[in-house]
Amino acid sequence: MNFETLLVETHDAVTLVRLNRPQALNALNSAVLADLITVFAAYETDPAQRCLVLTGSDKAFAAGADIKEMSQQSFAAMYGGNFFAGYDRITACRKPWIAAVSGFALGGGCELAMMADFIIASETAKFGQPEIKLAVMPGMGGSQRLVRAIGKAKAMEMCLTGRMMDAAEAERAGLVARLVPMAELVDEALKTAAAIAAMAPLAAIATKEAVDAAFESTLTAGIRLERRLFHALFGSEDQKEGMAAFVEKRAGAFKGQ
Ligand code: HXC
């Protein structure tokens, strides 16, 4: 697949997507969004692809939504056109994906990273929601996902002051799953993605659905959903294979059936 703003490779069952607008520190314009929608749709519908890694450059995962593209927009264009709603197509992806963040993840860049199932970051990563400095505010989920990730006090402080959080603080605060040296970021993310890709795909989808439901439901409803999904996996061939493989002391080979 060839894209104007992305570089896409496959590594066996893992799709690696690199944001590629170095001249604008990977600022997210409408071309990036259109390309991301296409690549996520292709990933979702390809049963051979079982995990995806989204990364940027060493200097920037993404320095935000494209300020130059937005600067002259009217209320009617933003509200009437439901600006940023296209990102709902990415968060609707049911299959697992990881954000691998090095350098700046600011504004929409931080928000895009938080749309991932989890973030692996390099020691140089810097996260922030600086929109308030532009007299706006987070518009791609930051005011909601950051609160859920790191709690109200830190999220509110970051959104009101626009300050950046370095990688160590982001790990302590629970925004990122793991920190790795910058030179190893993509390899580590690919290794983690390969480990997920080796799991039964239906179990991965069900796990993601259940964990995501923790933010959308009561404890009782979430536990009921979890139990039903757990029960449902006993209808899969992969469950038989997974448990047989354990008993026979071998690796399971999963088909997504
Ligand atoms: C458009 C951007 C950009 C952005 C950087 N660039 N960020 N272009 N939109 N968000 C461009 C610069 O204009 C410049 O292009 C080139 O990338 C390199 O950036 P520099 O500023 O020269 O680099 P540096 O000095 O290293 O500073 C890096 C930086 C800074 C600290 C990340 O670029 C910065 O503060 N960027 C804006 C961060 C931000 O406010 N993000 C939130 C955006 S709003 P030229 O052509 O001049 O060389 C947002 C909205 C979300 O995300 C939803 C609510 C509306």
Description:
This protein is α/β, with parallel strands linked by helices and 257 residues long. The protein folds into two domains: 6-197, 2-enoyl-CoA Hydratase, Chain A, domain 1 (Alpha-Beta Complex), CATH 3.90.226.10; 201-247, Lyase 2-enoyl-coa Hydratase, Chain  A, domain 2 (Orthogonal Bundle). Helices cover 45% and strands 16% of the residues. The chain has twelve helices and ten strands. The strands form two sheets. The chain has a six-stranded mixed β-sheet, sandwiched between helices. It has a four-stranded mixed β-sheet with strand order 4-6-8-9. β2 (14-19), α1 and β3 (51-55) form a beta-alpha-beta unit. α5 crosses α6, α6 packs across α7 (152-161) and α10 runs antiparallel to α11 (219-233). The protein is globular, with a radius of gyration of 19 Å. It starts with 5 loop residues before the first strand and ends in a 10-residue tail after the last helix. The mean pLDDT is 98. Hexanoyl-coenzyme A is lined by residues 24-25, 27, 63-68, 104, 106-108, 130-131, 134, 136, 138-140.
Key phrases:
Lyase 2-enoyl-coa Hydratase, Chain  A, domain 2, 12 helices, 2-enoyl-CoA Hydratase, Chain A, domain 1, 10 strands, four-stranded mixed β-sheet, 257 residues
Measured between the Cα atoms of the first and last residue, the distance is: 27 Å
- Which structural class should the secondary elements be placed in? alpha/beta
Task: Estimate the helix proportion, in percent.
Answer: 40-55%
CATH topology of the largest domain: 2-enoyl-CoA Hydratase, Chain A, domain 1
Keywords: Fatty acid metabolism, Lipid metabolism, Lyase
Function: Could possibly oxidize fatty acids using specific components.
Family: Belongs to the enoyl-CoA hydratase/isomerase family.
Catalytic activity: a 4-saturated-(3S)-3-hydroxyacyl-CoA = a (3E)-enoyl-CoA + H2O; a (3S)-3-hydroxyacyl-CoA = a (2E)-enoyl-CoA + H2O
